[in-house]
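Supplementary Methods. Inverse-folding protocol.

Structures were first reduced to a discrete structure-token string of length 152. This string, shown here, constituted the complete conditioning input.
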């Protein structure tokens, strides 16, 4: 009987470890200022280590610009659209290159910590001040047929 329970637990843990993991982002992004085609914002990131937390904060900033818009800024409407899952699925290659190959960094003019890294359970949390070249980002989205040029 103990052997059956032991084998069952091993099988269940194996199945669980192979299941799809759902990750959530902290998505805390606040507007600071905009000027000449750039936008500056604060973004919070959470990750297993400092680098992962920084990546999460930077990704959150872009995700808010792409799919939600940033209230009280010139970018109050989403750059791409609000149907995030469908847009990402239809443009999978673009977003893989954008994040996995770190293309997003070419649009970052500044990314600097505004707080020290803090512990949140087993994760780390950091807040960054991020400045994005929105004009260049918009041109890139147009050039890759993610969005259409205004008026065309």
């Amino acid at each position: 009987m103990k052997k059956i329970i032991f084998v069952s637990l091993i099988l269940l843990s194996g199945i669980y470890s192979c299941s799809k993991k759902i990750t959530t982002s902290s998505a805390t992004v606040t507007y600071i200022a905009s000027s000449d085609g750039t936008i500056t914002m604060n973004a919070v990131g959470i990750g297993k280590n400092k680098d992962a937390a920084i990546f999460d904060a930077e990704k959150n900033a872009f995700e808010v610009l792409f799919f939600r818009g940033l209230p009280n800024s010139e970018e109050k409407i989403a750059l791409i659209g609000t149907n995030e899952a469908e847009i990402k699925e239809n443009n999978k290659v673009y977003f893989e290159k954008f994040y996995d190959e770190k293309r997003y960094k070419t649009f970052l003019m500044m990314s600097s910590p505004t707080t020290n890294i803090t512990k949140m359970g087993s994760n780390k949390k950091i807040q960054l001040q991020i400045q994005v070249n929105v004009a260049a980002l918009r041109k890139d989205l147009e050039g890759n047929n993610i969005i259409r040029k205004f008026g065309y």
